[in-house]
Every structure is written in C-alpha cells, then in structure tokens.
C-alpha cells in the first residue's frame, strides 16, 4: 500500500510508525541452470558482493511481449485509531490535519522547493556545488523549442500571414498582416482584414484592421504605440490609430503611391515620430509623413546607373534601417539578389546609391542588421542565409549551406548576438548559432506542413512567432540556453566577425590582383597580335615587291636581248 497523495508532499507525525530491526544477511552465488538456459535461450550471470550488492553482468536474448499497465495507488499509513475503510472518519482526519498551522507551513515550504526544481533548467542554478575549477558549471548545449499556442485566421478563405509586429510595450499584443502574394490568384470572397491579437486569448482577435487592399506589411510605431503603418497589395500606404477604430485614419493617394505591392515599411525614430518610408517591387523607396499623406516627401529610384530611370530600377523586397547608427544609410534587398546601400538624406547628396552587395541568386526576403554589431547584417534569399560586413562588397563573410528548399524569412535574436532564425518553404524553423556551427543549424524543428512566410522574435525574450501560408501564427518558446547571453559571447562574436572580414579582404585583394593580371595579359596579347599582323603585312609587302622587281628585271633582259638580235641582222 502507498500513503495518500498529500502524505507524499510533506513529512507527517503520526502515531503509527515503522519499526526496523537488524538481521544477518546471507550471501550466496547462484549459477544459472543449464536446463532452463536451453529452454529460455537466455544467459543471465548474477554476482553478489559483501561490499556492494549489484548486478555486474546481464545479457539476455529472451523474446518478450511488452504490455502497458497502470498501477493502483491505495491509501495507507493512517494513524492507529483511524479506520481507513471509513470514508467519513478519514475525511474528518484529513480536514483536521490540513487546518493545522504546521501542516500548512510544511506544504508551502515544500511547494516552493518543488516549483523551483520544476522551473529550473540550468544545472548551475540547481546544483551550485557542482562547479569546475574556475567556478563555472560545464553544461551540454541542448537547444530546444516547443509550440505553446496558435493564432488561426478566423476567415473561411485562408490567407498568408505575410508580416508580424510585436507591440513595443505590451508584449502580449501581436499585429498580423494577411494577404495573398500569388499574382492574380487571389481566391474569390477573400477578406481584406488584418488583426491585432492578444496571445493570451487565442480564439478571437482583439481588434480588426480594415484596409482598402490586403496588407502585405504592418509595423507598430515605437513613439506612439497606438499607431500602426501598413503597406497594401495595391501599393497604397495607410496608418491606423487603435483609439479611432478599425478604419484607417489616412491613406496615400493612388496616383502618388507605389505601383506594385509594398513589401516593407519602416518608422524613423524622430522627435515627432510621424516619419516613415516604404519599399516596393516597382523600384521606388518613398518617404512619408503621416500628418499629410497626399504625396511622399521624398522619392528614391533604385536605378543602378544612378540616372533615376524607373525602367532600369531594381525591385525592392526587403529593407533595413538602424536608427541607432550615426550614419544616415539604409539597406534595400532587391528581387535581383543585390543589397543596395542608400543615403537617407537625399536633399544633401547627389549620389543616393552608395554601393551594392552581390552574392544571392534570387529575391532577398529578409534583411536585418545584427542588434549588437550593426556593421554586420543578415540576408535570407534563395537557398542560403548569409552574414555580411559593410566593408566587403564582393561576397559575404559567413554563409550557410545550400538547402533543398527555399528560405522565406529570417531574423536575429534580440538577446544573443550569435543566434538567428530562418524559416523555409517546407514548414521548418532553423535556429543557428554561428559560434557553435556555421554551415548547419543547431536546431531544426518541423513547425507545420505548409510553408512558413514570416518570423519575428519578441524583444524581451526568445518567444518566436511564425506565420504560415494558411494564415496560422504559431508561438514557440525557446529553451533557456537560446535566450540567455552566454559568457564572453559578445567578445567571441566580435572576434569572429573581425577575423572573417580580414579573411575576405585578403581574398578580395587576391581576386583583384588576378583580375588585373588577366586584364594586363589580355592587353599584351592584343598588342602582340597587332605586332604580328604588322609583321605579316610587312613581309607580304616585301615579298610582292621582290616578285615585281624580278618580273621587271626579266622584262628588261628580254628587251635587251631582242634589241641585240635586231642589230645583228642589220
């Protein structure tokens, strides 16, 4: 029999106690029976020792049938005067004992210890005595993640969750933009609504945003958290104030808006907090002030020739601007696989396009600077994820392996400089730690069966949300080692970035030298070719001159011979 459940949680003083007595123990070696061994087909060798009774050698080949069976726990260990079969008596005894102050104190003390052990995942916190010589617990790096909640598109006709934005202050609110990105394949009766969710209430959105056209991107304003800016599929820009309802406060005029879907909008961290800019596949970056959205305040055409020709412009798919950086530069990821570095202050420069970074083979769906090292940025495109340095234009400093499926989005961890996340078309989430592995992810998690189009990490911790093709947003909780800054991690990542940047600079210099040598050798080859042609022409000319001279000499000799014959006849 087992004691009742509440007996297991704490120690109780009862009248009935267990008596233990000493007795002599006999030790005996029992060899296996050969007859039984032939029948069972097994071999079991058991050896006992007076110091320690333990099984030293066990090997078995016996086949068995596995059966799952529950265990019936029966109450027991009652006081001597209590009849365990009488439910009323036992109930009164439980009630009386639980009211005792000593019992309550023991329950609270034991519960706090159990809660601490349950929530504690770090061996150093649970077992502070188990440390190495330097006082740091050596732990195995075992990253993990689990899905804790799902936010489903409430409409019957499902759309893709194309953009996610966490509330800057209220970490329970998440804005999700829904749209269909397949050109001219939007289903009939498709809703244009996007939603603001409270992740603690998953069955119904907290607020509905009703745009004129489906929203492709959506961002909270960090200055005024009641305001959101959104870019529509038809190219218009609009903003909402949650205090004013579901309808947009203002929308940009169609004739002054983008001509293609708006894939990215970014707020500028100004004193007023009303300035923003947008990027679209029509090859333009437009700057706006939400106080007057009739037309943009500035316009930049992503023309590589820097002539402002929209016919030659590169289509923008992603964009990144780090407000903490002193330099007024921002990055644009294009459909052609190029990253364009642009100058935000168009009125003070004649050269808005600073430089370009090449290396991808398809549209750059994600572009983000490292929050700890802004000079290094992450790009996600085609089948790879790459990390770049601003000083290297020709190639990335770190690149993942080529995957079998397309990568559709990615972002850095806000708490660890070496960790970033990517999502793929096959519905998997990859977690990367460049200090541990550079070519392969440290964690690969199958989130769903449909494609994952968007991902965003909450700033205060590593709660990750992933938006799928069918409009379902899944919330994943990362393990503590993925959301806790490790010892010397910043210094190690900084050293890695500097080392890889130097290596790429050396390789870039060698490539340029070889390229110059090839050009010089080609020039020499062209010069040698010209000399050879001139030599051949000169030789040919001398040959024909010699032939003509011989012909003339023969003619003169013939003429002299004939004139001599005429004189002899006379």
Automatic annotation (TrEMBL):
The keyword Ribonucleoprotein does not apply. SMART domains: WD40. GO terms for biological process: cilium movement; outer dynein arm assembly. GO terms for molecular function: dynein heavy chain binding; dynein light chain binding. Keywords: Cell projection, Cilium, Cytoplasm, Cytoskeleton, Dynein, Microtubule, Motor protein, Repeat, WD repeat. Its main location: cytoplasm. This is Dynein intermediate chain 3, ciliary-like. It comes from Sinocyclocheilus anshuiensis.
């Amino acid at each position: 029999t087992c004691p009742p459940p509440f007996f297991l949680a704490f120690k109780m003083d009862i009248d009935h106690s267990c008596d233990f007595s000493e007795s002599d123990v006999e030790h005996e070696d029992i060899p296996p029976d050969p007859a039984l061994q032939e029948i069972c087909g097994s071999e079991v060798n058991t050896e006992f020792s007076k110091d320690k009774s333990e099984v030293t050698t066990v090997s078995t080949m016996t086949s068995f049938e596995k059966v799952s069976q529950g265990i019936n726990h029966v109450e027991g260990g009652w006081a001597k005067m209590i009849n365990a079969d009488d439910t009323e008596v036992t109930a009164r005894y439980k009630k009386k004992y639980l009211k005792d102050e000593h019992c309550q104190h023991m329950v609270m003390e034991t519960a706090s210890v159990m809660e601490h052990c349950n929530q504690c995942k770090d061996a150093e916190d649970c077992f502070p005595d188990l440390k190495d010589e330097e006082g740091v617990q050596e732990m195995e790096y075992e990253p993990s993640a689990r899905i804790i909640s799902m936010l489903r598109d409430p409409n019957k006709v499902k759309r893709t969750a194309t953009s996610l934005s966490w509330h800057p202050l209220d970490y329970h609110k998440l804005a999700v933009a829904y749209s269909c990105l397949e050109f001219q394949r939007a289903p009939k009766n498709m809703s244009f609504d996007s939603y603001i969710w409270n992740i603690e209430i998953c069955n119904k959105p907290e607020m509905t945003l009703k745009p004129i056209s489906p929203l492709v991107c959506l961002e909270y304003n960090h200055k005024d958290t009641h305001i959101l800016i959104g870019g529509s599929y038809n190219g218009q820009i609009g903003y909402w104030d949650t205090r004013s309802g579901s309808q947009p406060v203002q929308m940009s005029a169609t004739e002054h808006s983008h001509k293609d879907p708006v894939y990215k909008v970014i707020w500028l961290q100004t004193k007023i907090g009303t300035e923003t800019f947008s990027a679209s596949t029509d090859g333009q970056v437009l700057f706006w002030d939400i106080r007057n959205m009739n037309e943009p305040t500035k316009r930049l055409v992503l023309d590589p020739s820097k002539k402002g020709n929209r016919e030659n412009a590169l289509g923008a798919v992603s964009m990144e601007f780090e407000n903490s950086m002193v330099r007024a530069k921002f990055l644009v990821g294009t459909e052609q696989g190029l990253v364009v570095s642009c100058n935000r202050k168009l009125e003070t420069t004649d050269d808005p396009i600073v430089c370009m970074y090449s290396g991808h083979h398809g549209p750059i769906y994600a572009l983000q600077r490292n929050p700890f090292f802004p000079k290094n940025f992450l790009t996600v495109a085609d089948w790879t994820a790459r990390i770049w340095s601003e000083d290297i234009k020709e190639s990335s400093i770190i690149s993942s392996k080529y995957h079998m499926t397309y990568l559709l989005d990615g972002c850095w961890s806000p708490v660890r400089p070496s960790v970033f996340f990517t999502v793929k078309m096959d519905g998997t989430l990859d977690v990367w730690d460049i200090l541990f592995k550079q070519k392969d992810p440290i964690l690969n998690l199958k989130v769903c069966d449909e494609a994952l189009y968007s991902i965003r990490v909450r700033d205060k911790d590593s709660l990750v949300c992933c938006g799928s093709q069918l409009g379902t947003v899944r919330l994943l909780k990362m393990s503590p080692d993925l959301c806790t800054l490790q010892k010397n991690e910043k210094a190690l990542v900084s050293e890695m970035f500097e080392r890889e940047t130097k290596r790429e600079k050396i390789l870039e210099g060698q490539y340029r030298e070889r390229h110059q040598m090839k050009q010089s050798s080609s020039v020499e080859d062209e010069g040698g070719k010209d000399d050879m042609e001139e030599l051949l022409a000169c030789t040919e000319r001398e040959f024909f001159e010699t032939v003509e001279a011989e012909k003339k000499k023969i003619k003169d000799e013939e003429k002299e011979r004939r004139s001599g014959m005429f004189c002899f006849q006379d």
